Amino acid sequence: MQLLSRLMFGLAGSVLMLLALGLIIFGCWRLVAAFTLSGEHLAEPLLGAVGYVIISIAVFDVAKFLIEEEVLNGRERRIASEARRSLTKFISTIAIAIFLEALVTVFRVSATRVTELLYPTFLLIAATLLVIGLGAYQRLSAMVERQVDAGDRTHERNS
C-alpha cells in the first residue's frame, strides 16, 4: 500500500508540475499575443502574465512538497523540527503567492473598477492570517520541542 501511495503522490506531483509549466507558457503566450496585436492595452496582459506566473509558482511548490515529503522522504519524519521547517517553507511560499496575487489584483482593479477592491482586500487579510497562524504554529511547536527535549534529557539522567 505504501508503494501505491508513493506512486500516486509522484503522479499527482508530476501532473501539477506540468500544469505549472503550462500556466507559465500560457501567460507568456498571452503576453506575446498582446504585443503582436496592435491597439491592445498592455497593462492587462502584463498583469495577467504576472498572475499566471505567481499561480504557477504556488502550484509548482505544492507539487515539489508532495514529491519531497510523500515520495522521496515517505510519511515519517525523523525529528519534529525537520517537519516544522518543511511545513514553514511550504506555507511561506503559499503566503507569498497570495500576497503577490492580491497586489496584482489591486493594480488590476484599482484603475477602473474600484468597487471590486473587496476581493484583493480579502486576499490580503487571508495571507496575513496565514502568516499569523504560521507564527503561532512555529512558537507552539518550538515550545513543545524544547519541553520534549528537556524531558528526554531528564529521563536519560535518571536512567
Primary descriptors:
159 residues, mainly alpha
**If helices are DSSP runs of H or I spanning 4 or more residues, what is the number of helices?**
4
Nearest-angstrom radius of gyration?
21 Å
**Rounded average pLDDT:** 82
Count of DSSP strands: 0
Secondary-structure element order, as H and E? HHHH
**Which structural category fits the helices and strands?**
mainly alpha
Reconstruct the topology from this structure.
Layout: H1 2-36, H2 43-72, H3 80-110, H4 118-158
Helix pairs in contact: 1-2, 2-3, 3-4
Quick overview:
The protein contains four helices and no strands. It has 159 residues and is an all-alpha fold.
Structural features, described:
The chain is an all-alpha fold and 159 residues long. 86% of the residues lie in helices and 0% in strands. The protein has 4 helices and no strands. Helix 3 runs antiparallel to helix 4. It starts with a helix and ends with a helix.
